[in-house]
């Protein structure tokens, strides 16, 4: 767009059907893309959503997962809080894996996406599984 001198805006939106809406986006005033030279950042959380990047321990064989926030710049699993679906219809085991009650942050949805915070902006860096999105 810059090469052709066009007056256009590019928007990157990210969300999950489990959150029923866009969770984060690049703000209207933009982001310093020099911080992200190889790919577009996911952006910043919308006002109605809480977004955390967490390390996940446990959660196998029906035991509850323990989530701990990572330090800024470290990668971890992206988790949403706020307006969320309640469960997967008739998939109790998957619901128990993906929706986790955090004593500090309330009910969170584990996206399976890996991300990190860079200068207050969320960058998606991969997946916890082999799913392609």
TrEMBL record:
SUPFAM superfamilies membership: Acetyl-CoA synthetase-like (SSF56801)
GO molecular function: phosphopantetheine binding
Gene Ontology biological process terms, A to Z: amino acid activation for nonribosomal peptide biosynthetic process; secondary metabolite biosynthetic process
GO cellular component: a single term: cytoplasm
Protein name (database record): AMP-dependent synthetase/ligase domain-containing protein
Species of provenance: Alexandrium andersonii
Native organism taxonomy: Eukaryota, Sar, Alveolata, Dinophyceae, Gonyaulacales
């Amino acid at each position: 767009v810059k090469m052709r001198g066009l007056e256009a805006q590019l928007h990157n939106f990210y969300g999950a059907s489990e959150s029923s809406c866009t969770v984060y986006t690049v703000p209207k005033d933009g982001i310093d893309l020099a911080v992200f030279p190889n790919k577009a950042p996911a952006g910043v959380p919308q006002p109605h959503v809480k977004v955390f990047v967490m390390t996940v321990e446990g959660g196998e064989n029906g035991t509850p997962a323990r989530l701990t926030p990572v330090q800024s710049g470290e990668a971890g699993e992206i988790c949403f809080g706020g307006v969320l679906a309640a469960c997967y219809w008739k998939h109790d085991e998957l619901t128990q894996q993906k929706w986790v009650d955090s004593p500090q942050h309330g009910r969170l949805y584990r996206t399976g996406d890996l991300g990190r915070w860079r200068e207050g902006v969320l960058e998606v860096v991969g997946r916890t599984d082999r799913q392609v999105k």
